[in-house]
Amino acid sequence: MRMRQAPDQMCALLCVLLALSLGACSPSLANKAQSAGGEMSRGIIDPYLKIQTALFNGSIDDLRAHAGNIATAATALGAPAMKIDTTALQLASAGDLADARDKFGALSEAIDTYMTGLQLRPPEGVKVAFCPMVKKPWLQEGSTLANPYYGSAMPTCGSFRN
Question: In terms of pTM, does the model score above 0.85?
Answer without folding.
Answer: no
